[in-house]
């Protein structure tokens, strides 16, 4: 069974450009999460989808970030326009269950390393 | 408020030494879960263990063991007889029942095991 996949693995863009990150969760997982780690700090939660609905987007830093999960399958995270402080590693995770109960293990993807110059 | 503190930024040991990674958490919830993840050089986060707040039994899995103490709000991780392959970044994390499945991570501890 394939794990969580993320594309691209690396992205280098200039300030002001747009970047779209993609996450394909494990098949059948209703819950999809985005996290990011900036400059060696802790990994921080961005948002949580249950199927195609945003369950919790309290961690989204500002309105330059837009996440979608059309059809409840893969998800995209768009940053527009990108700023220097957006550089970091963006992780996606998925878990089973329709309500994201705390005991459901989250399986993480390898992350996308974003560098904004 | 939820918070996870991993005070050790980096630890270096020689192979076969035992090493303990510290994790201290803060929560106001009575029902919560604690996790450890490993991030090897390849970058992915690998789940190691989950513990719920009602189960303070220590756990051992091969060379890994975990010590959960609610009295000190700690969930420490010990690797016995460390190996070079244990070199990685280790993250402790917390999720609260009332916050859904959102994980709150510590800053991570870099473990370097030298041969």
The total count of strands of chain B amounts to 12
Largest interface: A-B, 32 and 27 residues
Q: How many individual β-strands of chain A?
A: 11
Fraction of helical residues of chain B: under 10%
What structural class do you assign from the helix and strand content of chain B? mainly beta
- From the N-terminal CA to the C-terminal CA of chain B, the straight-line distance is 41 Å
- The whole-angstrom Rg of chain B is 14 Å
Q: How far apart lie the N and C ends of chain A?
A: 37 Å
Our estimate of the beta-strand percent of chain B is over 45%
The largest β sheet of chain B comes out as: 6 strands, mixed
Assembly annotation: heterodimer
Count of helix runs of chain B: 0
Any overview of this molecule?
The complex is a heterodimer of chains A (117) and B (115). Chain A is an all-beta fold and 117 residues long. Chain A has strands at 5-7, 10-13, 19-24, 31-37, 43-50, 53-56, 65-68, 75-79, 88-95, 107-108, 112-116. In chain A, a hairpin with a 5-residue loop joins strand 4 and strand 5. The mean pLDDT of chain A is 91. Chain B is mainly β and 115 residues long. In chain B, 0% of the residues lie in helices and 53% in strands. Chain B is built from no helices and twelve strands. In chain B, strands 2, 5, 6, 10, 11 and 12 form a six-stranded mixed sheet that branches. In chain B, strands 3-9-8-7 form a four-stranded antiparallel sheet, with no helix packed on it. In chain B, strands 1-4 form a two-stranded antiparallel ribbon. In chain B, strand 7 and strand 8 (64-69) form a beta hairpin. Chain B is globular, with a radius of gyration of 14 Å. The mean pLDDT of chain B is 92. Chains A and B meet through strand 4, strand 5, strand 9 and strand 10 of A and strand 5, strand 6, strand 10 and strand 11 of B.
């Amino acid at each position: 069974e394939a794990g969580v996949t993320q594309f691209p693995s690396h992205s280098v863009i200039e300030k002001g450009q747009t970047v779209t990150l993609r996450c394909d969760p494990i098949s059948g997982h209703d819950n999809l999460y985005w996290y990011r780690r900036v400059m060696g700090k802790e990994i921080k939660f961005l948002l949580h989808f249950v199927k195609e609905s945003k369950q919790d987007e309290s961690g989204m830093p500002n309105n330059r970030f837009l996440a979608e999960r059309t059809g409840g399958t893969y998800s995209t995270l768009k940053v527009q326009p990108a700023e220097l402080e957006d550089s970091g590693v963006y992780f996606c995770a998925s878990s089973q269950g329709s309500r994201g109960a705390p005991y459901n293990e989250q399986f993480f993807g390898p992350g996308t390393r974003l560098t904004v110059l | 408020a939820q918070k996870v503190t991993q005070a050790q930024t980096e630890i270096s040991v020689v192979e076969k030494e035992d090493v303990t990674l510290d994790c201290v958490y803060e929560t106001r919830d009575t029902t919560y879960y604690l996790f450890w993840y490993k991030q090897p050089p390849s970058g992915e986060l690998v789940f190691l263990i989950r513990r719920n707040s009602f189960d303070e039994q220590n756990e051992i899995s091969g060379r890994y063991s975990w010590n959960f103490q609610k009295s000190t709000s700690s969930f420490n991780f010990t690797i016995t007889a460390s190996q070079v392959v244990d070199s990685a970044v280790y993250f402790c994390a917390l999720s609260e029942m009332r916050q859904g499945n959102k994980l709150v991570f510590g800053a991570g501890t870099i473990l370097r095991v030298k041969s």
